[in-house]
Specification:
This protein is of the alpha/beta class and 357 residues long. It has helices at 34-44, 61-68, 80-86, 94-107, 118-149, 165-174, 180-211, 215-220, 228-238, 247-253, 278-291, 296-306, 313-334, 340-356; strands at residues 2-9, 13-20, 25-31, 50-56, 74-78, 258-263, 266-272. The protein has a 5-stranded mixed sheet with strand order 3-2-1-4-5. Helix 5 (118-149) crosses helix 9, helix 10 (247-253) crosses helix 13 (313-334) and helix 12 (296-306) packs antiparallel against helix 13 (313-334).
């Protein structure tokens, strides 16, 4: 007999709902302890029962998956944002949420989340950590600039970047010339900037070492504008490219496809969905800005979407980034390097088709 179990997990407890083939629902409240959950699941498998478990994705989903996967016959991590459209209820309790997951699991309608290996999940965490450090560095630099400008220094004495060695040395000397309160703030901010840069360097070295062992790294970096940070983010979040049947599915996974509002004969495309990993969208758009300065084919695509209108710059660059993702998927599937002539040929055909229509 098969048992379908839904876990509703919060910060203190786990509410479980068990659906059995005999139609009887069984509920249990468990402590948020792995050993207790494993013991309870093992007990459910007695008498030859097959146990199928599901719970919603969260920050601890990867850890729970690793701890519980050997205690059940199948384990599915669900996407709660998609589940609400499949199973709507006006009431919401822990028991209802647990049963909702168990019912959908039994029906085969659980919107499953791909659960990559532990090493890949750790890779993703490191990528996100480095991005947050870069954001913190940018914020610190902005605060330093604002503080110095508010004290009457609109420009640096040595020109060029604010952050080159000569200008940094000037900032250190400046702490002796301004009032005591601002001196303390500027000194702390400069120390904070130095710490951020040291941490970024350390994490970058770890990521470079990890990327060096991935076969797809050198492949993706043959595309204009794509550096190691973009390549590693795409590879880490792609994991298994075979799970994406179409290029549209691949771009949708990264939140780069437009929302669709369709009713009757009306069909309206909106902004991109922005679902999935934001770090990939951020990096691929930055890469797109570099690519249109170096790649004739991607530049032609960008100009076609822009259509000579400056107000369409953002639309065109997002479309270019989406185009780059589609090409990356093809490259990972075929193992071929970026083919500038092939992409340019496709763009020429698209322009000719548009002129003829």
């Amino acid at each position: 007999m098969d048992k379908y179990i839904g876990f509703d997990i919060d910060d203190k407890k786990v509410v479980a709902c068990v659906l059995q083939d005999d139609g009887k629902d069984v509920y249990a409240t468990l402590p948020l302890e792995v050993m207790a959950m494993r013991a309870w699941l093992t007990d459910q498998r007695k008498s030859g029962h097959k146990v199928h478990l599901t719970f919603e994705v969260s920050g601890a989903a990867g850890w729970l998956y690793d701890e519980l996967v050997d205690s059940v016959d199948s384990l599915t991590v669900s996407n709660p944002s998609k589940m609400t459209w499949i199973f709507r209820t006006t009431r919401k309790t822990d028991r209802i949420d647990a049963r909702k997951q168990a019912v959908l699991l039994k029906l085969g309608e659980i919107p499953a989340v791909h659960m990559p290996p532990k090493a890949v999940r750790q890779w993703r965490v490191l990528i996100q950590h480095r991005r947050k450090l870069v954001d913190a560095r940018t914020q610190t630099k902005n605060r330093i600039r604002m503080l110095i400008k508010n004290h009457g220094h609109r420009q640096t004495p040595h020109g060029g970047s604010w952050w080159k060695k000569a200008n940094r040395h000037w900032m250190q000397q400046l702490t002796e010339q301004i009032i005591e309160t601002w001196t303390a703030m500027l000194t702390d901010l400069l120390d904070q900037l130095e710490l951020c840069e040291m941490q970024i360097t350390r994490q970058t070295e770890k990521l470079d070492a990890r990327l060096a062992h991935h076969a797809g790294a050198a492949l993706l970096q043959t595309m204009h504008g794509v550096g190691p940070r973009t390549a590693e983010a795409v590879l880490a979040y792609t994991d298994e490219v075979e799970r994406f049947r179409r290029g549209k599915d691949y771009c949708a996974y990264f939140g780069m496809t437009p929302k669709l509002d369709e009713s009757g004969s009306t069909r309206r495309l909106g902004h991109i969905s922005k679902q999935g990993p934001s770090v990939v969208r951020w990096l691929i758009v930055e890469s797109a800005w570099r690519a249109i300065r170096k790649s004739p084919s991607l530049t032609a695509f960008y100009e076609r979407v822009k259509h000579g209108q400056d107000r369409r710059k953002k639309i065109a660059i997002v479309a270019t980034a989406r185009k780059m993702l589609s090409v990356m998927r093809a490259m990972l599937n075929t193992g071929e390097v970026f083919n500038e002539n092939l992409v340019l040929q496709q763009e020429t055909m698209a322009v000719s088709k548009r002129m003829c229509s």
